[in-house]
Amino acid sequence: MQIDLSGRTALVTGSTQGIGLAIATALARAGARVVVNGRGEERVADAVRTVRAGSGSEDVTGAAGDLATEQGAADVLRAVPALDILVNNLGVFGSADPLEIDDAEWRRYFEVNVLSAVRLIRACLPGMKERGWGRILDLASDSAVAIPAEMIHYGMTKTALLAIGRGFAKDAAGTGVTVNSVIAGPTRTGGVEQFVRELVGDELPWDEAQRAFMVKYRPQSLIQRLIEPEEIANMVVYLASPLASATTGGALRVDGGYVDSILP
């Protein structure tokens, strides 16, 4: 398949590292104008340089702002042109005793993982509908469907993203705009490596630590390894392309077979 996103502008939230950085790089490689986002100017500038180097494209800019706040979202939107592709990748995660998570932490997870996406969809979808083309993609997780006991607050937010994607897809019906969720499985990023170490300890070499983590905490995985960020990015680039014009309102899995279900 030939995917050409030339002439399209994409914003990838939370894209200074990990999955978001891989998505930004892959979209730029496919020809899109890419806007990288993070909270700090310095980290955004570093990520812009990384995406340019990894994609061979100079058509990469940055927009710093904390999308978990209304002001931060407004700042980012003022800095970007009309969007054709919105990738809501921003998210926080971590393990916690569910009975010890206080109200403030529940609110923080909801603000960062859910409301940041809602704010941007609300701002960008009308213009996409008016222009007759657009792609909105929300990065969900296997935790949306198989809620981990140690990450209930995180799983809740990812389940919410599935509902949001389906609902806004209905709002965009018949306009040429598609809205989908991508269910990412356990993926190797810096944050996940730290998370693995928190659960299995620092004594084991990384390959052994990864295997121990998968066996104990993610035994349902059919590929029996962590997914690489580029594998998630491949699905996002396809869904962002004209080739995926008949796919909307969906929750598409790149989870290594982790979710033990025919449907999400």
From TrEMBL:
Which Pfam families does this entry report, sorted A to Z? adh_short_C2
User: What superkingdom heads the lineage?
Assistant: Bacteria
Upper lineage is: Bacteria, Bacillati, Actinomycetota, Actinomycetes, Kitasatosporales
Tagged with keyword Oxidoreductase? yes
The family note in this entry says: Belongs to the short-chain dehydrogenases/reductases (SDR) family.
Against InterPro entries, the record matches this protein to:
NAD(P)-bd_dom_sf, Sc_DH/Rdtase_CS, SDR, SDR_fam
What is the protein named? SDR family oxidoreductase
Q: Which keywords does this chain's UniProt record carry?
A: Oxidoreductase
Q: Note whether Nucleotide-binding occurs among the keywords.
A: no
Q: Name one GO molecular function term.
A: oxidoreductase activity
Q: Set out the biological process GO terms recorded for this chain's protein.
A: monocarboxylic acid metabolic process
